Each structure stands twice: as C-alpha cells, then as structure tokens.
Automatic annotation (TrEMBL):
InterPro entries: DUF3263 (IPR021678). Pfam families: DUF3263. It comes from Pseudofrankia inefficax (strain DSM 45817 / CECT 9037 / DDB 130130 / EuI1c). Residues 1-32, 99-128 are annotated as: Disordered. Residues 1-24 have a biased composition (Low complexity). This is DUF3263 domain-containing protein.
C-alpha cells in the first residue's frame, strides 16, 4: 500500500449527517427514527433543555426535529414499534392543534373572530 492509499484508509471518516436515515431495520424503523422515539420517552423539566439536547444528540434545529417527529407519529412502523408512546404523542399534538388559533388569545379559545358583542369595555359609558 502506498502512502496515498494509507492516508486515505487512516483518515477520519466524516460523520453521517442527521438528515440521512439509515436503511430500515427490524420493525421498519430506521436507526434515527428509533432514536427519536427513545428520546421522546424522556421527560423534560424545561423546554430549553430539550431544545439543547435535540441540537446535541441529533444535530438538528428543534424546528426540523419536530417536523421529523410529526412525520414519524404518522408512520405505521412507529405505531407498531411503540403504540403507547406514539398514541400519547398523537393525542398531545391533536390537543395543541385544537387549542391553537390566531384569534384564540382574543376570544379565549373560541376559535372565531371577535364580534361587537365580544368586546368588553373597561368602564361602562354614560348613555347621556
């Protein structure tokens, strides 16, 4: 083996990007998908701690991680592998989606735009 071949064989291998999923293993889940499910079993006291762990463990932004998690929740393979966890995550997601609307803060979650009857004045006006 000449020097060039030896340098190539001893050069450190580049880390696999977190975006690339390895081929599916047993149960139809990739290694990354299985890691995401294991990660979601943990409990977090603070959201910032979870966000930092996402960056460290997966090399992803939290927004991208949650995109991947949402796709994983819809996966039949994930449901087959972790039915209780995927069911819980799916219910949490549905509750968040149901409770959110652009006008929710104005009308206390009614999901509709405020009308004149919904507006409460701070002090009654004198009709005279």
């Amino acid at each position: 083996m000449d020097d060039a071949q030896q340098q190539e064989s001893t050069a450190p291998q580049a880390a696999q990007p977190a975006e690339a999923s390895p081929p599916a293993g047993a149960g139809g889940l990739s290694d990354r998908d299985a890691r995401v499910l294991r990660f979601e079993r943990r409990t977090w006291r603070y959201p910032a701690a979870k966000d930092e762990a996402i960056r460290t463990e997966f090399g992803l932004s939290p927004a991208r991680y949650y995109q991947l998690l949402n796709a994983l929740i819809e996966s039949p393979a994930a449901l087959a592998a972790e039915p209780v966890l995927v069911g819980r995550l799916s219910r949490l997601r549905a509750a968040r989606r149901q409770g959110w609307s652009p006008a929710a803060s104005v009308t206390a979650g009614s999901g509709r735009a405020p009308s004149g009857a919904d507006v409460v004045e701070p002090y009654p006006t004198d009709p005279t």
